[in-house]
Hints:
Distance between the termini: 23 Å
Structural class: alpha/beta
Order of helices and strands: EHEHEHEHEHEEEHEHEEHEEH
Radius of gyration: 17 Å
CATH topology: TIM Barrel
Largest sheet: 8 strands, parallel, barrel
Strand order of the largest sheet: 1-2-3-4-5-6-9-12
CATH architecture: Alpha-Beta Barrel
Number of helices: 9
Helix content: 25-40%
Strand content: 15-25%
Amino acid sequence: MQINTIPQIKNSDSGQFFLFAGPCAIEGEDMALKIAEKTAKITEDLKIPYVFKGSYRKANRSRIDSFTGIGDEKALKVLRKVSETFNLPTITDIHSAQEAEIAAEYVDVLQIPAFLCRQTDILVAAAKTGKLVNIKKGQFLAPEAMIFAINKVKDSGNDQVMVTDRGTTFGYQDLIVDYRGIPTMREMDVPVVLDITHSLQQPNQTSGVTGGKPELIETVAKAGIAVGCDGIFLETHFDPQNAKSDGANMLHLDHLKNLLEKLAAIRATVNNF
């Protein structure tokens, strides 16, 4: 598949990587529009194809009192408002087969969370919506195993599929990125995305709140572009410390332009080899 099949995608012929970026979770309309407006301006200036990312509900939380969302329909309508306001495609994750058809009415790309990447019913349901399906590689899986998830989507009649690496479990409270997995999965004839945000998580903290290493965002992202990933996934917020989900490893919105400028320069160099 080619990313130019994503509705409303811009700059798909620029030779740049594409970007999935936005807040971890939709906390409200104003915050989503603020993040989308600034990110859209930066990516347009750099000719980076951009898809706004926001989870309408967070199903995988450590504690029962963790923030999960503002309400499914309300958050999905915010995603639609972002799309209509800025003429942008959008992506969100789903957590069950039943959610696929509902979310597909509001967004352009359906994302399968890493911990659900082997769930056949979810993959098939997402495929049957006809939307592009982005499957996150489970942190417990070898890159080679993703061919089976890809084939579940394709065998359901949908060739619009990509995969995202989000790190591999390293002990109980850390993740590492094995960059060998990017060319391995690209050989499966699908676009490969590197999820910078979740690759830097530190799960299973005793506090019940996931930690992170945001100081390594630039390092991991640069390496991903250098080894040939097709796209970058990252979460950004104008106030990460007070974000309601995954603030510990989100990029401050004020730092996004500088990071993307560096990544765009690396991609331009890579394109010459």
